Amino acid sequence: MVIDAHLHLRDDVYVGEEGTPENLVRMMDEVGVDKAVLLRLYVPPRKAMEELQEARDRYPDRFIPFFYALPDFSEPTLKLMEEAIKKQGFKGIKMHAGICRLESYIVDPVFDSASELGVPLLIDPAGDYQNTERLAKSFPKAKIIVAHLGYYLCSDGTLLDRFISLARDYPNLYLDISGVLLVDKIEKAISEVGYERIIWGTDGPSNQPEPISFTRKEMEKVLKLGIGERKKRAILGENIANLLGIENNE
Ligand SMILES: [Zn+2]
């Protein structure tokens, strides 16, 4: 089973109409992606939740929604998060340090709650190594997926090396290899951390050059690696399926 562990719903900021549920499923069919972890940013958590629910209800076998945990003055995010996980079947949490900082007063309550609820957190740390280390240390029970090996489209190999070493040292960390420019760092992550904690995602949809070839290109990054088929399958879907407790019968 192939799972894109990092896909955005209707992310108008980048792709206009391309991010609709219909277009995403069409794109996934074209490339051979069975399921996708679906994220929604840039709107308040309740709106994100409602849009993700709608997409999931339309394509229940294809989309795995993650709750967008963002501090919100209009209602308590933690309560909404519990509702999303317990009642609406959301499978994880998404936080983005480029939008809200990873300071302890903001994220720690979310990490506490996610640990209790037993769902993973997909965190885009936007290069914030210090807070990622703090979170890995403070929340050993939280399963933390670090997006983009730590920093989106990062050309600073030394910074990525630090995130890779951090994941090697903390078994509660997983590395998402979407938005990685330095492909040799993916190889390094696999050999240092172990393929079981490396997770494929596209961070799509993207119009660079257009969604289908973008997704294909992201998949080829894994297919071209000099590792066996079994490890490639794990990275392309089985690892995230295990993490989310999804039956792997395809
Ligand atoms: Zn993303």
Describe this structure in words.
- The chain has 250 residues and is an alpha/beta fold.
- The chain has one domain (3-244): Alpha-Beta Barrel (TIM Barrel).
- It has helices at 12-15, 21-31, 45-58, 77-86, 104-117, 129-138, 157-169, 183-193, 211-223, 229-244; strands at 3-8, 35-39, 63-68, 92-96, 121-124, 144-146, 173-176, 198-199.
- The protein has an eight-stranded parallel β-sheet, with helices on both faces.
- The longest helix is centred in the C-terminal third of the chain and has 16 residues, at 229-244.
- The termini are close together.
- 47% of the residues are buried.
- The model has no long low-confidence stretch (mean pLDDT 92).
- Zinc ion is lined by residues 6, 8, 203.
CATH superfamily membership: Metal-dependent hydrolases
Spans where pLDDT lies below 50 across 5 or more residues: none
CATH topology: TIM Barrel
Known CATH architecture: Alpha-Beta Barrel
- Rounded mean pLDDT score: 92
The number of domains = 1
Biggest beta sheet attributes: 8 strands, parallel
Number of helices: 10
The tally of beta strands, per DSSP, is 8
Note the beta-strand portion.
5-15%
Distance between the termini: 5 Å
Hetero ligands: zinc ion
Summarize this structure briefly.
With 250 residues, the protein is α/β, with parallel strands linked by helices. The chain has helices at residues 12-15, 21-31, 45-58, 77-86, 104-117, 129-138, 157-169, 183-193, 211-223, 229-244; strands at 3-8, 35-39, 63-68, 92-96, 121-124, 144-146, 173-176, 198-199.
